[in-house]
Automatic annotation (TrEMBL):
Domain TIL: 30-85
Domain of life: Eukaryota
Record keywords: Disulfide bond, Protease inhibitor, Signal
Gene3D superfamilies referenced in this protein's UniProt entry, alphabetically: Laminin (2.10.25.10)
Species: Leptotrombidium deliense
Protein name as catalogued: Chymotrypsin inhibitor-like protein
Signal peptide: 1-16
Amino acid sequence: MKFVIVLFALLVVANCYSYRGIRPGGQKECRNDEIFVECGSACEDTCENYRNTFRPCTLQCVIGCKCVEPKIRNANGECVLKEQC
């Protein structure tokens, strides 16, 4: 029985270590005007949608780089000010 508990504990530790948010150096490198988030919105503001105040969005965590406010993402994937859209 002890063997099963030890094996289970090792599997849990191995699984946690392989998660990119926990492993050292696992974070994605972002540009200067972006920030890495482990639980960002699935509905990031873009030049195409920021004027639409009512946008249905799913409640899920998206891991990745997000534009630093007040910038938003343009069609080329770059972070720009709204006036530059």
